[in-house]
Amino acid sequence: MQIFHDLGIAGKLYWGCYVLGFLTIFVFNDFYGKRYGIPPKKSVPFTVVSYVLIYLWAYILAWVVNGFEWGHHNAIRVYIWFPVVLLFTCELFKLDWKTACEFITPSTCIVYGIARLGCNFTGCCYGIPAFWGIESVEAGYRCFPVQLCEAVTSLLIAAFIIRRARRRGYQPDGTLYPLMMIFYGGTRFLWEFLADNNKLFLHISELALWALLTCVIGLAWFFAADEQNRKKRTRTRTH
Fold it and tell me: Of 121, 159, 191, 211, which sees the most CB atoms within 10 A?
């Protein structure tokens, strides 16, 4: 938005949203971890270490994707890798992996939703041209507010995940993280068609492919976990 650039605070607001996003999930996980029997002395350090590692991996992936040149990283590339990172941090903090995946799931959407709001101030990651849209200094014209749409979608998914976990009594069954991957990957794939970025084919961008991959892996994981839970319920009834 031009006004924030004119005031010289666009960049500060952008990074402010990033900082606010991480501070929010640290406070949230301090509270939310108790629901899963994880004390604050573990939940907060676990969150910090897990996000530091996945953030570093995001930069490495961006470096590879950009032809071994440092460039802009994007969260959609790392959602499929976060459970792998958690294998290490769970071992480090002596936590159950399935429980940790369910505990960490809402924060992945919360931090992205808040941080993504910062893109509206600098005008980066802008959408396709729209005369009624938000003015982007970087693009030089009014754009569809795809950043805002992604932020709101991400926060809504977080709310859905939290509600589902609460209705199930915070009993981990291995389905929350893959559900998040399905919803976030699927919606992000659609939002990418309204993003003004480089398209590879059929108006599909590289980030859209990552989103589609995230959704597909989430579907496979969800149905495998659901089938495992169904068999477990069947064995319980027969005994």
Answer: 211
